[in-house]
Each structure stands twice: as C-alpha cells, then as structure tokens.
Amino acid sequence: MAMALFSPTFSFRISTSAPQRRRRRCFVQSSQATVAIEAPSSSTTDLLLQVKDLSAVIAESKQTILKGVNLTVRHGEVHAVMGKNGSGKSTFAKVLAGHPDYEVTGGSIMYKGLDLLEMEPEERAIAGLFMSFQSPVEIPGVSNIDFLNMAYNARRRKLGLPELGPIEFYGYVAPKLELVNMKTDFLNRNVNEGFSGGEKKRNEILQLAVLGAEFAILDEIDSGLDVDALQDVAKAVNGVLTSKNSVLMITHYLRLLEFIKPTYIHIMENGRIVKTGDISLAETLEREGYKAIS
Ligand SMILES: Nc1ncnc2c1ncn2[C@@H]1O[C@H](COP(=O)(O)OP(=O)(O)OP(=O)(O)O)[C@@H](O)[C@H]1O
C-alpha cells in the first residue's frame, strides 16, 4: 500500500510494500539508446552503485518518467545531478530509495553487489542507503531523539551490533548536533514539526550523520537555505564524507557545488542522463543556461 510518509528511514516505523521491484520483470526492457557518458572505469571492487538502462513509470498512471538512466558511483565519489524542472531527477532519487509511487519497468540497479530492486525500502536503508527529501516529512508525537535512536538501533540490530540505550545514544548524537549547528532542544521536539525549512534540512543531515550512511541521496538540500545555513549543511555533509561513502545530490545551483565539491556532474533531460562532466558543466549552466549544453 502506498503511504503518505515515505522515507527509507521512516520505514523502520511504518512498513511498506515495494511494488516497483516486483513488477519490473513483467515489462520488456527498454531498448532505447541512452546518451549517458559513463564515468571512467576503474576497479570494479570500488563500485558502490551501478544503474543500467533504468526505466520507470508512475505506478498509478503508468506514465513513463525514467527512460534509460545509466550511472556508476564508486566509493568516495560525489555526484551531482542537475537538469531542468520536470526532467526526472527526484523520480530517479525516489526510485533508488524504493518509493512505492513508481514501478521500475526495465534495467538494473546493483548496490554493493546486491540487486537493489529486490530489496524493500527499509532493507535499502539498513544496507546504508539514505535519502534526504526535498520536503522532509513531519512526524507528530515522535521526538527527534527517539526517532533517531530507534532508526540507529534498527540498523545496528541488523548489523549484529549492540543497541544503544537513551543515555549512551545521547552521548553519540550530541557531537553530531554541533556538526550541523543545531541546538540540543531540537532533539526533544517532534520530528520536523514546526521546524523552519532550513531547520528541516539540517535535521535531514543530522539523520545522515547519525545513521552513517554509505550512500546518501540528497534532493535539493540547498533549497530555501540562507547563506549561513547552506554553509552549515555543506560543512556537515563534507564532515560525513569519507573515502568509503558516496553522495548523489540533486541541485539547481552552482553555489552548493562550490561547498561540496562534486567528482562528476550529470545533466538529466527527459528521463535520461544526457551529459556527464566536471564542475565546468555547472559553471556553463550558471552562465548560459540549459541551451548551452542541451
Ligand atoms: N507521483 C507522481 N504523480 C504524477 N506525476 C509525477 C509523479 N512523480 C513525478 N511526476 C512527474 O514526472 C516528471 C518528473 O518529475 P520529477 O519530480 O522527477 O522532476 P525533477 O527533475 O525532480 O523536477 P524539479 O527540478 O522541478 O524538482 C514531472 O513532470 C512530474 O510532474
């Protein structure tokens, strides 16, 4: 059943079905040629995520949104996805997270050597995939610290590690609050309830820091942030980046990419990645608009 409050992290609390993975084999794989430019190949042991010829429709209307996406992400890389409004960026992110609004109709996604499309959203989260949404959801009646503690322990349980009690967990989370420049009282407030837009984004990055995700998908974390908040959020993202984990961020603006340096920039157009390059691609875009690179 589709749910209003989808998030792989929140799925620890609210279990979902994942229609996208079960139905995908009922469709013939798209044979449309894609124009994606793959990142240069290196050792396959570095591979974190490999998306091949991914196509997806909206579950309800069957309207095709993704039309053959190819993307390779290795450990330690930062990928930025840019593109005009409506080109399919958020849909791609949500399909990676296992959002039930979409059905995969072709292609494959391998994550850490596993078939991601065979995994439930919560299994994806436990396997280290984190998604920050454009509009983070509010969870009335659930305090931020309880939510974080529960999500953190759920992952630890699956990894065979001992759970942390409230006091130990407070000791773990407190330094991470500093990383995102959030006051302690945010821990006792209900998840995102009454938070400003910027506070919600900081809270998303706090979740990322707490969960220690290996692959973070950040959908427009820069939207609605003032300059200071943008720097705080970028500093926090940089603070959680290591040579072992990777980030896929969706953005419209060069300003974010000046703080979080991308390894590759991809341009999405009409449900496909049509161009891949370095920061100069975003600079051209900023100067001349999409007509310069379409
Ligand atoms: N659940 C849905 N129901 C109806 N239409 C949808 C749904 N999800 C995506 N779409 C449509 O698919 C297209 C791609 O949407 P998507 O949100 O992926 O674009 P985007 O590139 O992220 O855009 P933006 O830059 O404006 O955030 C849009 O035309 C959108 O209206």
From TrEMBL:
Keywords: ATP-binding, Nucleotide-binding
SMART domains attached to this UniProt entry: AAA (SM00382)
Annotated ABC transporter domain residues: 49-293
GO MF term list: ATP binding; ATP hydrolysis activity
Keyword ATP-binding: yes
Protein name as it appears in the record: ABC transporter
Organism: Salvia miltiorrhiza (Chinese sage)
